[in-house]
Amino acid sequence: MLNAQPVAAVGLPLRAAPKYSSDAYAYSTHGGFAKTADSTPRADNVHRLPSALRSASVNAADRSAVANTLLITDAACDLPAEWLAANKVAVLPIKIHVDDWHLIDLHDEYDTLEFFRKDIATKGMRAQSEPLSPLETRDFVQSNLRKEINAVIEVAIASSRSKIYMNSLAAAQNLMLMHGRVRRNMGIHEPFKMWVVDSETVFAGQGVLVAEAVRQLQAGMSAAKLAQHLDTLRHHVHTLVVPKDLFYLYSRAKIKGDNSVGWLTYNVGKMLDIKAVVHAYAGKTEPCMKVRGYDDAVKRVMDIAITKVREGLITPIVTVSYAGNIDDVRESASFVALESVCMRRGVTLHLSTMSMTGGLNVGAGALSIAFACQSLDV
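Below the sequence we write its predicted structure tokens.
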């Protein structure tokens, strides 16, 4: 029978309750992370380059923290759904509305492909995406929390393109109050922390950051170090987008008040079959080159990626997404060439269906490719 006497009765000193460190959340800004509450000593070398972009040395404490970290992204992130599920990445849904027609983007590749095939031509032009509210976001995060999780890192689509980032900040603040109190009542004295990272990019670019987060967590990097790593890395992620239907891109941009593609660009492109390649970087999207013919434009961005892989990437990841059947991309000569170079250089290449949210903005048949490098002249 177990001895039910208090510890002091058997001659052992009573231990004082562990001191509780305040809960904290942090959000990424252009200058780095800004903290609303500081529960850990501030590191002096957070943003040194290039050392900030190298995998940090791993100790036992870091390894034990890996299993306690929840990684979240949103449905706009372009990575294979199966891969995200296998790596336990929670995906925040996005609402889509067209007149009285409503659906939820759950990052389901089959539903997304069906949408590209059947609905985007008739409904995509008028469709509007809507992020979950702060309360809905908080409930989503909470539904994915387990007792052992004490850190959450969310990688959000660029704040310049969506309110997901801002709503997640509000959700994080609310979650700190509620979940932190619950943990303390359960006798859990380790602080609960949440980092919200503004990826400053879109489509495949967001995928680079999430894939890197998984890679570093599996290598044993702690949540705190990973948050700072992503905060630095996001300034080096370049995303190139090749829209197939320039009229669709122009019309969508006009509806959203986006001047990335002007009327003159559209008309000249239509007459000469010129495709405007869009460059997403540091929270901005703008045309960076014009190429005659869609296939040649795709080959051009693939060749750029091949060059950067050969030169050496900051992180060994390249992501490609396509608003259509990805077998069409997989069988193309330019992708096969990229795949071959990546294999020889030890670079992981992810190919996925573009998110429904992404496809709404750039149209069916659009392709995006992303990687992290020191600089890109396009």
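Residues 1-20, 37-52, 54-58 have pLDDT under 50 and may be disordered.
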